[in-house]
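To the wet lab folks,

You asked to see what we're planning to order before we commit. Fair enough. Below is the target structure as tokens, and below that is the sequence we designed to fit it. If anything looks off to you, flag it before the synthesis order goes out.
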């Protein structure tokens, strides 16, 4: 078994020539060449070879124009020359580079892939922002709003959990060369990290000083960000923030817990009525017992705070 790992790539920031200077230079030479060709008949000296060079210069200058490109703020271009990495340009503006630098994949391939998927799948799919032509990569912060996942917590209880991740590309060479597709790599690893995180903590009611998903949101979010960074760092991506956006028991366990709550409330009401009868605190008829049972059930099972009402009259008024 081969245990050798491929060495990680590292970004090398380079500078290229100013695009405006090169544009003026190339266009100037092109116009001068055309002017010379147009007046070649008036030259007295033999011009056979001279004209050939002048004609060949035109396609060369046109090819040099292909080397012009622009970068917006927080955008970079990875320079590849016949498969060899030559550096990364991060400075925004109008530039000129070798016209034979690889232009990279175009976005129409991603559009065709999306058209083959159903609308329901496309709605839940991670937004596709593939590298556009000329191997450009966005360095801006992006947000991944994950779907709800049904997982088991530390105690084996099924829960629903979701998280939002704010991420950005830090090392363009790792993003392009160390993983096959970093934009698909991120949501996959984010889901895996969230599932692993949920299995490490209990939903609630932990032991003394135990971190739980519900009670220690900041600690859990920090743990999620740390694990995400370990996974996404291989793709040259930085997780700036990761926080839980949804946390709840799964529907099946929520129904079971509701049954337990109701059963416990009924037991408490029954105990209260027996205590009152055995200690002869007050004698209640069936109607007053029903009213007391109703009030106690509201107090014990209600979600909102209960406000007491003081009765200044008799028990029957």
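Sequence we intend to order:
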């Amino acid at each position: 078994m081969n245990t050798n790992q491929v060495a990680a790539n590292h970004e090398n920031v380079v500078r290229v020539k100013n695009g405006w200077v090169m544009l003026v230079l190339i266009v100037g030479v092109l116009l001068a060449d055309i002017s010379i060709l147009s007046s070649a008949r008036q030259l007295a000296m033999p011009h056979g070879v001279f004209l050939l060079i002048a004609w060949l210069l035109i396609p060369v200058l046109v090819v040099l124009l292909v080397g012009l490109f622009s970068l917006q703020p927080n955008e970079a271009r990875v320079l590849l020359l016949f498969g060899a990495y030559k550096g990364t340009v991060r400075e925004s503006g109008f530039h000129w580079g070798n016209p034979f630098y690889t232009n990279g994949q175009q976005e129409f391939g991603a559009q065709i892939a999306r058209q083959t998927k159903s609308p329901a799948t496309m709605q839940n799919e991670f937004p596709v922002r593939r590298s556009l032509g000329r191997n450009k990569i966005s360095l801006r912060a992006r947000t991944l709003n994950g779907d709800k996942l049904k997982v088991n917590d530390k105690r084996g209880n099924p829960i629903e959990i979701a998280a939002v991740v704010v991420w950005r590309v830090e090392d363009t060479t790792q993003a392009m060369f160390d993983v096959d597709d970093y934009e698909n790599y991120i949501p996959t690893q984010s889901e895996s990290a969230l599932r692993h995180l949920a299995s490490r903590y209990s939903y609630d009611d932990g032991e003394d000083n135990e971190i739980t998903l519900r009670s220690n949101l900041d600690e859990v979010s920090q743990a999620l960000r740390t694990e995400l960074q370990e996974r996404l760092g291989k793709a040259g991506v930085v997780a700036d923030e990761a926080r839980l956006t949804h946390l709840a028991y799964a529907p099946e366990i929520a129904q079971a817990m509701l049954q337990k709550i109701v059963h416990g409330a009924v037991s408490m009401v029954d105990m209260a009525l027996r205590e009152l009868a055995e200690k002869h605190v007050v004698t209640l008829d069936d109607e007053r017992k029903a009213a007391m049972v109703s009030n106690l059930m509201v107090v014990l099972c209600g979600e909102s705070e209960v406000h007491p009402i003081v009765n200044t009259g008799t028990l029957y008024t």
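Structural context that might help your review: Residues 141-249 form a domain with the Tetrahydropterin Synthase; Chain A fold (CATH 3.30.479.30). Strands lie at 17-18, 68-71, 75-81, 84-89, 93-96, 136-138, 142-145, 149-152, 158-169, 237-249.

Thanks,
Computational group
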